[in-house]
Amino acid sequence: MDRNIIITGGAGFIGSHVVRLFVNKYPEYRIICVDKLTYAGNLANLADLEQRPNFVFVKADICDLDKMRSLMKEYNVDSIIHLAAESHVDRSIKDPFTFARTNVMGTLSLLQAAKEHWDTLPEKYDGKLFYHISTDEVYGALELTHPEGIDAPFTTKASSGKNHEAYGDEFFVETTAYNPHSPYSASKASSDHFVRAYHDTYGMPTIVTNCSNNYGPYQFPEKLIPLFINNIRHRKPLPVYGKGENVRDWLYVEDHARAIDVIFHKGKVAETYNIGGFNEWKNIDIIRTIISTVDRLLGRAEGEDLDLITYVTDRAGHDLRYAIDSRKLQKELGWEPSLQFEEGIERTVRWYLDNQEWMDNVTSGDYLKYYEEMYKDR
Ligand code: NAD
Ligand code: DAU
After folding, report:
1. Residue 136 annotated among the catalytic residues of the structure
2. Which residue is catalytic, options 139, 184, 218, 273?
3. 63 lines ligand 1 (CB under 6 A)
4. Burial zone of 316 (CB within 10 Å; 0-12 exposed, 13-18 middle, 19+ buried)
5. Of 114, 157, 252, 370, which one's alpha carbon is 20 to 30 angstroms from that of 224?
6. CB of 232 closer than 8 Å to CB of 265
7. What is the 3-state secondary structure (H, E, C) of 158-171?
8. Is residue 256 a part of any domain in this protein?
9. In this structure, how many other beta carbons lie within 10 angstroms of the beta carbon of residue 203?
10. Is 204 touching ligand 1 by the criterion CB < 6 Å?
11. Which residues make beta-bridge pairs with 29?
């Protein structure tokens, strides 16, 4: 094998798309997927790759430093693409310690295990890379200076056809100061700092990327889009936080995976790249779009399920607007999103409706308890 790459969190939403892309595109690379299989990890997300000769799955906790050390040695790992994390903001509000443990201590264990292994090699850090996947949430929240929307100053193919809008004048750039608000984003910010500290202190080759909200197949239905698709299907209430005015910047998950591929191969060590498609949506507008898409695909009257919208108590510390400026990545490395939002959302809704068995499996057991607990006081 030309390379031995650990991809952590590969049984989760984004990780499974990254693993699939790398296993299929690079048969000469051994892909070692390391995942603890928490509630969010699911081997069914990787079922099509099981028999592939360049794919290895290891069930392990990234916080287990000895295990990470032995994996680095056993596979003589030259690169790590690190996605494993606790990823849901609402869960972080209820249980911040789990987020500090996995996102901060887990990242630190991986960094240390990589450093120790690479330090024993004659070539040391040559040809090595620790690539850390982070989020736009570390930058905090932007103002909604144009609540009705203005023509966006920049667009990409991902920008919605109907909705070429921006809701504020500012965007997150790579030099925007960190200002996380939730326990989730605080833990991700802390892990980003540790990654950069391992570069600045020990000279370890690292890259950090910060991406906007992803959507697409295999996302756990605690997140807005799959949760609402499933609820509409079952005609359950749609819990919209606050007034539904918060703005998120949505990117199709396979476009994120493609960006990771480009950055892994062409990115400059010690750099940060923001990933996003200039595709801002107010929650309530995206929710209406999902409702009409699900209704149409299920043969219901379009908009019939609008009355499922139920405004509930807002998320504590709810960030108002995220908007990523990804021009550095576009200019320096030539990445561009490939899928327009309307096409992406249609594909996504179809996938969840066609894969009801997947949905039933992940929403059985503990999920119902989670759902009741999470929404009972709202
Ligand atoms: P996810 O919750 O769907 O998947 C996380 C995966 O990590 C799961 O497979 C889980 O089993 C695994 N995991 C959790 N704790 C672990 C541990 N201690 N040891 C080993 N494995 C563990 O998350 P996602 O949405 O796919 O996000 C992946 C990464 O991308 C995260 O780092 C997240 O912060 C980042 N990110 C996500 C988004 C988004 O919109 N989803 C956007 C930008 C960045
Ligand atoms: O911006 C990137 C981040 O996007 C990632 O780092 C996170 O891992 C990912 O979970 C996501 O965070 P958000 O909090 O933006 O995603 P979520 O799907 O939880 O919520 C999207 C918006 O919808 C947010 O404004 C809250 C709102 N919402 C969410 C849920 C689950 C509701 O109104 N009702 C809901 O039931």
Report:
1. yes
2. 184
3. yes
4. exposed
5. 157
6. no
7. CCCCCCCEECCCCC
8. no
9. 13
10. no
11. 3
Q: Which residues, other chains included, contact 131 with Cβ-Cβ below 8 Å and sequence gap of 6+?
A: 79, 80, 81, 82, 206, 207, 209, 260, 263, 264, 267
67-99 residue pLDDT tens: 999 999 999 999 999 999 999 999 999 999 999
Q: Is 137 a catalytic residue?
A: yes
pTM recorded for the entire structure: 0.98
**Annotated catalytic residue, options 61, 78, 86, 137:** 137
The tokens of 198 are what?
A: 């391992």
Give domain status of residue 40, yes or no: yes
What are the CA-CA distances from residue 145 to residues 86, 148, 176, 279, 363 (Å)? 31, 9, 18, 17, 39
**Dist. CA 94–CA 100, nearest whole Å:** 13
- Mean pLDDT along residues 322-328: 98
State the pLDDT at residue 77. 98
Q: Are strands 165-166 and 150-151 parallel, antiparallel or unpaired?
A: antiparallel
CB atoms within 10 A of CB 148: 7
Which ligand neighbours the alpha carbon of 375 most closely?
A: 2
Per-residue pLDDT, 162: 77
Give residue 134 CA to ligand 2 midpoint distance, Å. 15
**Which mutation among 87, 110, 192, 213 tests ligand 1's pocket best, with the greatest number of atoms within 8 A of CB?**
87
- The CATH number covering residue 127 comes to 3.40.50.720
**Number of domains present in the structure of the chain:** 1
Q: Which atom of ligand 2 is nearest to the CA of 88?
A: 10
**Domain assignment of residue 27, yes or no:** yes
pLDDT score at 117: 98
The string of pLDDT tens digits covering residues 138-176 is 999 999 999 999 999 999 999 988 778 999 999 999 999
Q: Is residue 73 part of a domain?
A: yes
Beta-carbon count within 10 A of 162 CB: 10
Cα distances from 298 to residues 71, 236, 290, 351, in angstroms, run 47, 15, 12, 13
Q: What is the pLDDT of residues 329-341, one digit of tens each?
A: 999 999 999 999 9
Domain of 127 in residue numbering reads as 1-138+178-211
Q: For residue 275, count other CB atoms closer than 10 A to its CB.
A: 28
Q: What sign results for the dihedral spanned by CA atoms 291, 93, 104, 41?
A: negative
As a whole number of Å, the CA-based R_g of the chain is: 20
- As a whole number, mean pLDDT of residues 198-203 equals 98
